[in-house]
C-alpha cells in the first residue's frame, strides 16, 4: 500500500504546540507518512554527541535523526491511546506511520512514542494527551469529592459535639434550684387587687342606689300627675248635679 499524498494532512496548532491533523478521512491500516532523517550510527563517535527529541531508534546500532524540517512526521504528537502507530523496518532502516483506527477530518494524528521516551521527556512534565488529561480531570474530581466528604464529616462531628454540649448545659441548668421571690413583692401584689375590688364595689353600690332613686321619682311623678285628673272629673260631676237641681 502506497503512502498517502500530503493533501491528506496538515501541520496545525495543538495543545502541546504543533501537531499533524487529518484533512481527509483516513482509513484504518492506511500508510499515512514516512518518518525520515539522517541515519546515526552508534559505532560512529561523531554521532554520540547528537541529542534531540526527534531521535527515532531503529535498533541498538541505527537511529533516525528526525529533526530536519522536511520530516513532517516529526510534528506527530504522542498519545497514550493513539489512532496510529509506527511501523518500524530495521532492515530497510525506515519508519512508516500507519493508521490503526479510522481518522476523521480535523482529528489529530498521534502515536505512542514508547516507554523510554515517555520516561525521559513526558513523565517529568506530565503527558498532555487526551487520555491523560481525562485521567487527571477524573483524579481532580475525585479529590474534590473526597475533600467535600471530609469537610461534611467534620461539620457533622462539630454539630454533634455542639448539641451534646447544649444538652449537658440544659441538664445542669435543670438541676439548679430556682430563686424565690422577695416578700415585699408578694405583699404589693396581694394588696393591689383588693383595693381595686373595693373601689369597683363602691362604684357599683352607688350606681345601684342612683338607679333606684330615679325609679322611685318616676313613680312619684306618675301618681302626682294622676291626681288632677280625678279633681276635674269631680268638678264635672258637681256641675251636672247643680244643673239638675
Automatic annotation (TrEMBL):
Keywords assigned: Chromosome, Methyltransferase, S-adenosyl-L-methionine, Transferase
Biased composition (Basic and acidic residues): 156-166, 176-188
Biased amino acid composition, Basic residues: 189-202
Annotated compartments: Chromosome
Organism: Rhodopseudomonas palustris (strain ATCC BAA-98 / CGA009)
GO terms for biological process, alphabetical: methylation
Compositional bias annotation for Low complexity: 203-245
Pfam family, one: SET
InterPro entries assigned: SET2_Histone-Lys_MeTrsfase (IPR050777), SET_dom (IPR001214), SET_dom_sf (IPR046341)
PANTHER family per record: SET DOMAIN PROTEINS
Keyword NADP: no
Keyword Isomerase: no
Region annotated Disordered, chain positions: 156-245
GO cellular component: chromosome
Any one Gene Ontology molecular-function term assigned to this protein's record: methyltransferase activity
Listed name of the protein: Nuclear protein SET
Entry superkingdom: Bacteria
Residue span(s) of domain SET: 7-114
Amino acid at each position: 500500500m502506497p503512502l498517502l499524498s500530503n493533501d491528506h494532512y496538515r501541520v496545525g496548532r495543538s495543545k502541546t504546540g504543533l501537531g499533524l491533523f487529518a484533512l481527509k478521512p483516513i482509513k484504518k491500516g492506511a500508510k499515512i507518512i514516512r518518518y525520515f532523517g539522517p541515519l546515526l550510527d552508534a559505532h560512529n563517535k561523531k554521532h554520540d554527541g547528537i541529542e534531540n527529541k526527534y531521535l527515532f531508534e531503529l535498533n541498538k546500532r541505527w537511529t533516525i535523526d528526525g529533526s530536519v524540517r522536511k520530516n513532517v512526521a516529526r510534528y506527530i504528537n504522542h498519545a497514550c491511546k493513539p489512532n496510529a502507530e509506527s511501523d518500524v523496518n530495521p532492515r530497510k532502516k525506515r519508519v512508516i506511520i500507519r493508521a490503526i483506527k479510522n481518522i476523521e477530518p480535523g482529528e489529530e494524528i498521534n502515536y505512542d512514542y514508547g516507554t523510554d521516551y515517555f520516561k525521559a521527556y513526558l513523565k517529568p512534565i506530565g503527558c498532555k494527551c487526551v487520555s491523560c488529561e481525562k485521567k487527571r480531570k477524573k483524579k481532580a474530581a475525585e479529590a474534590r469529592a473526597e475533600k467535600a466528604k471530609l469537610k461534611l464529616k467534620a461539620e457533622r462531628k462539630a454539630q454533634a459535639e455542639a448539641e451534646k454540649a447544649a444538652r449537658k448545659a440544659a441538664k445542669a441548668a435543670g438541676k439548679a434550684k430556682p430563686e424565690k421571690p422577695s416578700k415585699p413583692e408578694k405583699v404589693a401584689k396581694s394588696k393591689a387587687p383588693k383595693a381595686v375590688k373595693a373601689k369597683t364595689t363602691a362604684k357599683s353600690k352607688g350606681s345601684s342606689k342612683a338607679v333606684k332613686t330615679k325609679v322611685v321619682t318616676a313613680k312619684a311623678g306618675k301618681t302626682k300627675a294622676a291626681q288632677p285628673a280625678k279633681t276635674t272629673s269631680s268638678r264635672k260631676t258637681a256641675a251636672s248635679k247643680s244643673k239638675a237641681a
